[in-house]
Amino acid sequence: MMAAGASSVLRSDARRNIDRIRFAAIDVFREQGLSASLDDVAAAAQVSRATIFNRFGGRVGLIDEVIDEVVAAQLHDVIEESRSVSGVRERIGAYVRALRDLQYRLPAVNDVLLQEFPDSEGLMALCHAGGAFHDELVADGHADGVLAAQFLPSDFQTVVADSALVLKHRPRPPRIDYDRRTDFILNGIFR
To answer: How much is the pTM?
Structure first.
């Protein structure tokens, strides 16, 4: 929302407000997800909701400002760490386990996977990166013969979205049950 280089011409109190909003948004979004109330962000930053709109243009501008700190780095790490796993079956298993772990721990991941804010360029870039990796994993899994022949990239997206919906809109299951279901998912997609 701010023009490049504008931070140097801001009054010190305005710069402090921007910093407080950013830090508050990172904390609130990590804890509650990207759908968290902007009133909660404003309260944590000790500013008015109007100040958020004035400085960031609203929720989408704020998401784009903090998405790297909230969730992007973690999602990219999961992809890169999974890429380093040798063996296609092991790579797919490591990715599914790591992604589901992230989904369980970080509510903002589920907002990304559900594309809750399609006007957010940063959020959609993460979705596209994840989708491309899913396509890669499914192609590798079929080429190596470890994935069920009928399992498609769109099925991968649906499995991820189903988990996100359950975690976002239902009571969070105990971790032991969640991990057991991860095993069910993996057993269902592998040959």
So the answer is: 0.89
